[in-house]
Amino acid sequence: MRRSAIERLLPAAYQRACVPGSVLWALLEVMEGLHAPDEAILAEVDALFDPYRAPDGLVVRLTRWVAMDHVVAAPRPDAPLPLPLGRLRDLVANAALLARWRGTPYGMRRALELATGVPGFVIDEPVEQPFHIVVRVPATAAGQLALVTRIVEAEKPVAVTAEVALDGPPPPAPDGDSEAATPTPGPAIGRAAVPHHPVSHPPSAEEPS
What we know:
Elements: H1 3-8, H2 12-17, H3 23-43, H4 56-65, H5 85-93, H6 95-100, H7 105-116, E1 122-124, E2 132-137, H8 145-155, E3 161-166
Parallel strand pairs: 2-3
Antiparallel strand pairs: 1-2
Helix pairs in contact: 4-5, 5-7, 7-8
């Protein structure tokens, strides 16, 4: 709040006494300086709740507000995050979508892809083992199995058991190519893989496609 605005809130006698060089004038100048940082925050307060504009230190707290804190579970508060902040921001931004599809193959697959940054997760349901799912993890996500397991346990229906299976190692890169080729998925376990899109709810403008 500007000094002049504070001055207008004072009784008339104080306003007459508030002249340059007076103690009251100096006091109002100090008050203006004290209000400035808070007013700067309030002017852009929406940025604190925007997953892509929030300060880095606030993103982990945002995951708690949208029930995605199981992704960043760590034994110590000072432990490094299990995924880059960019992916964590993506999870927060998609939290409403993930909550809508929680407990479904699509919801679990989407959460895994956002958290790991790796596509190609497959969820199988062995016909000989009811109420059980096998989550097949692409070889390129082999280093994130702890994160994958945490997400699977949180996203699966409570009455369903689950296991995490890693696909075979990716084939060697061709000569002169520094990047490994995309791994070829192994044979499906049990029934065919669940379709990439939910079949009972056709995608609409507000639903994933």
